[in-house]
User: What shape does this take?
Amino acid sequence: MHKYSVRCALCGEIQDQMSLRCSKEHDALLRTSYENPQIILRNLPGIWKFYDWLPVKGIIKEGTGKTITYKSEAFAKEFCLSHLYIAFNGYWPEKNASMMTCTFKDLEAFPTVQRLHEKQDKNIMVVASAGNTARAFAHVCCITGQPLLLLVPQDSAHRIWTLHEDTSCVCLITVKGDYYNAIELASNVASREGFVSEGGAKNVARRDGMGTVMLDAALTIKALPMHYFQAVGSGTGGISAWEASMRLVQDGRFGKVLPRLHLAQNIPCAPLVRMWVAADVSPDVMEVNCPKDMYDDVLFNRKPPYSVIGGVRDALKATEGRMYGIDNTSAAHAQHLFEETEGIDINPAAAIAVAALIKSLEIGAIDPNDTIVLNITGGGIKRLQRDYNTYSIVPDMNVSANDPEAELKIVKKATEKFKR
Assistant: This one.
């Protein structure tokens, strides 16, 4: 029997393990089903401890980290929270946290690249990102030598750094435009010969990798939490937490009730909040002046996987979840309070989740005695920069999203760099 199978979330039919979509062209995500019904930690580094519930047949030994879940004391005391657990993703040596890109996007990058190697795909991997995903994929590709074409908005270029001096496997293209413009260009380039898409939300490796946040939390608590808080851009992390929770329920040792998802975005640039509150509003409607002036623009995605079967809407409905719109002032206050009490710096996106937790208490959406998991999706950058040298990846080219020749220019630049 295979270690895992991949099925359509709508029709349930088994698909090719490497497929990104249902062979019947259903508008539905694919999901993995694993041979081992119960999760057992392996004696492997980082994320690979959860090997039995990752859609891979091997591992990348170097450079991987994992979520570190711990029970909060100082921050929890501020709000009289009895059972608040922090799922920390980043660099914090005192907690044995060693995600060296300081973002939980590491959790999706490693299994995605591993699967590409198992597929024996020699093409150039194409990734669009507003910063954190790009940093994570650059990290693992510098380790493995996988050729990587990164497309990021030019305003996000400052986020593309690494601990590796040699970044010759990365071709960085900055785009005059927003994240969705980068996504569109990346999709067009990836469809060309010699290139391959990493798959986005459709890739089970990405979602199951991020789902290990919930696995680590449940194994630490020895039960599923009642509530799960996370800031989201596309919402894929929320989908991942839901899918992991369903597997843990089927495991039988962690409880029978799915955690309620509490997902947060930065208003006014919050498409998922708008769609959840006003379901009849088209996801194509563009927020005014977004992503300008956001507390963290990595959280803005114009077309998230909301209505697809198995997507964000289904995750929220299945868990009786909530969406929160968090303004910049609330986020700044939450970030300061968390860093002051817990003693580690966190990324602005994570501050949105902290602010959502505070807001949920204010409106009575949770009880202080409930078991809560707060996903700090990134942290420890300031701490890491004290301990290590970081190297900015220099862009190979800048293109305009409005340039009709942009796609051809990108293909030519990447082909020349990697001599394809």
The mean pLDDT is 95. The chain has two domains: 68-103+206-384, 124-193+390-417. The longest strand covers residues 83-92. Residues 236-251 form the longest helix (16 residues).
